[in-house]
Amino acid sequence: MATAAKRALKSVENAGESVSDALLDQIAALRNEIAAISEAVSDYGGHSLSDVQHNAVALAKEVRHQGAVVARQVNRQAGAAGKAIQENPIPVIVVLGTIALLSALIFTRD
Q1: Taking a C-beta distance cutoff of 8 angstroms, is the pair 92, 85 a contact?
Q2: DSSP track, 27-96
Q3: Could you tell me which of 35, 16, 12 has the C-alpha nearest to residue 24?
Q4: So what's the pLDDT on residue 50?
Q5: What pLDDT, in 10s, does the model give residues 59-85?
Q6: How far apart (Å, rounded) are the C-alpha atoms in residues 17 and 14?
Q7: What is the dihedral of CA 20, 25, 26, 30, to 10 degrees?
Q8: What are phi and psi of 88, to 5 degrees?
Q9: Which residues of 43-67 are buried (b: 16+ CB within 10 A; e: fewer)?
């Protein structure tokens, strides 16, 4: 019976060691997977920052281009308005007088 008990204890010890070894192997594998996931997330974060910077530069270029187009258009409209005022200043004087009269009426009310 003593030999049977010794064999049982030996198999339990071996089983315990194999379970411990299996757990250590699983922990090591999990650490490797976590490191790989961490690296992938880090790479993704770096790429998304690069994408945001690229999009910001593209947006700034587009805004600058559209601003130049709007400035040219405003310049043309101001030139046309200037010519119209030089040719016929009466309507402009009437409009400015009306605005001044209405402003005076509104701001002098109690």
Answers
A1: yes
A2: HHHHHHHHHHHHHHHHHHHHHHHHHHHHHHHHHHHHHHHHHHHHHHHHHHHHHHHHHHHHH--HHHHHHH
A3: 16
A4: 75
A5: 889 989 998 999 999 899 989 888 888
A6: 5
A7: 140
A8: -145, 90
A9: eeeeeeeeeeeeeeeeeeeeeeeee
